[in-house]
Known about the structure:
Largest sheet: none
Order of helices and strands: HHH
Low-confidence stretches: none
Shape: elongated
Helix content: 55-70%
Amino acid sequence: MRFPLLTLLAVSLLTLLASCALSGSKVPVPAIRPVPPLSAEDKAACSDPGVRDNAVAQAEIGRQRLALAECSRKHGRVVSQYQDIERLSTQ
């Protein structure tokens, strides 16, 4: 009982696909816009200031936080650029 059902399903799908291929209607393909390149500043890897020997811990924490803040801003700019591109491509 199962074999005829699968066969019927396969034939139905093939018929559907064949009729779509022979219909002659062309579906317009949206134009692909190239993604603009990132700025050199955003393309560069985030810096890792590391930990200096014999440095004051509070100063090292401050340096790490500044580096993290800059990396977060860079990430935000990149995400914003790609969201703008995505928004424009769906219009």
